[in-house]
Amino acid sequence: MKKRSYVLLGIGGIIGAIGAFLTYYGNPLNMGICVACFWRDIAGGLHLHDAGVVQYLRPEIMGFVLGAMVAAMVGKDFKSRGGSSPFLRFFLGMFMMMGALVFLGCPLRMILRLGGGDANALVGLAGFVFGVAMGVVFLKKGFSLGRAYKQPAFGGYLMPLFAVALLVLLIVKPDFIGFSTEGPGSMHAPLLLSLGAGLLVGILLQRSRICTAGAFRDVILIRDYGLLMGVVGIFLGNLVANLFLGQFHLGFTGQPVAHTNWLGNFLGMALVGLTGALLGGCPIRQTILSGEGDQDAAITVMGLLVGAAISHNFGLAASPKGVSTAGFIAVGMGLIFCVILGIVLRRKQ
């Protein structure tokens, strides 16, 4: 167990450092890796929403999926499976993205924001742990989305094929794909660097099983600190790299692509934590699982895409200016949906 903890700490450190270097080479500050933000940018690039400042086909995402597929095949973990309440997972994915865009980042970016000195992420962390703890209550009462079953092999390859298609579109740059000329969407590291980093991170995450929601769930539920060591490693690796690169700026105000609305930060990440606990994984974990043949995770990722589109088309997403009323309503609806789901499926058990 001690050896496993040190290995996960080291792997997390590598991932955290990669996030800092991606920022140094062009990604938005404190956003070297953000799965929610990157899927949102892809949704914009595909014109599922027309927020001009967040449109880009992020090659890191393609790398995550393809790297996970390669690692799963080598490790004989690639299995086409699914059928565990796919439509419910789709909605949970939608609400997960809505919560993330109210906070302005996924749990992984929350850790990287901490590593960059953004104190607002501490409020988000408190909300995230609170949400995961809520989910654990339902898990203890017997909550389950049902078991997955073996599926036709072709279905397991659809998400990797989707990633390849996105990569081709990014390279060809047809007119119907959106590319931001200003704002966060216009900031990105060179394509090959981003893709290579994504492939490496995808391989590391697939083999290590590191998951932010899973880390806190395991601590609360079974007192297992293994995955948490991976999360701590991400923070430490990112912090050290940011200090080395001169990218650490401590404070609440003036943080890049962030706001200071404490309630929005807390509730947004509480929704992400709760959905992550019910789904069995945070956004990055769902993305990795989708690359290793898990069609339920792929459905969840599609929910993330649609959630990003809804958030920007209907003004739910926050901005550096703060959180809209519509954003708070969406988070409230998501929390209510999750609580009802947790109660109903618990009773069925």
**Portion of residues within helices:** 55-70%
For the termini, the CA-CA separation is: 32 Å
Instruction: Specify the overall morphology.
Output: globular
Q: What is the residue-averaged pLDDT?
A: 97
Give the biggest beta sheet.
2 strands, antiparallel
Return residue spans where pLDDT drops below 50 for at least 5 consecutive residues.
none
Rounded to an integer, what's the Rg over CA atoms?
A: 18 Å
Number of helices: 15
How much strand? under 5%
β-strand number = 2
- Overall structural class, as computed from helix and strand content, comes to mainly alpha
SSE ordering = HHHEHHHEHHHHHHHHH
Describe the structure in your own words.
With 349 residues, the chain is mainly alpha-helical. 68% of the residues lie in helices and 1% in strands. It contains 15 helices and 2 strands. It has helices spanning 2-24, 35-45, 59-74, 86-103, 107-115, 120-140, 153-156, 158-172, 191-208, 212-222, 226-245, 262-279, 283-291, 295-313, 325-348; strands at residues 81-82, 149-150. Strands 1-2 form a two-stranded antiparallel sheet. The longest helix has 24 residues, at 325-348.
Top keywords for this entry?
349 residues; mainly alpha; 15 helices; 1% strand
In short:
This protein has 349 residues and is an all-alpha fold.
Write the layout of secondary structure elements.
Elements: H1 2-24, H2 35-45, H3 59-74, E1 81-82, H4 86-103, H5 107-115, H6 120-140, E2 149-150, H7 153-156, H8 158-172, H9 191-208, H10 212-222, H11 226-245, H12 262-279, H13 283-291, H14 295-313, H15 325-348
Antiparallel strand pairs: 1-2
Helix pairs in contact: 1-9, 1-11, 2-14, 3-8, 3-9, 3-13, 4-12, 4-14, 4-15, 5-6, 5-11, 6-10, 6-12, 10-11, 12-15, 13-14
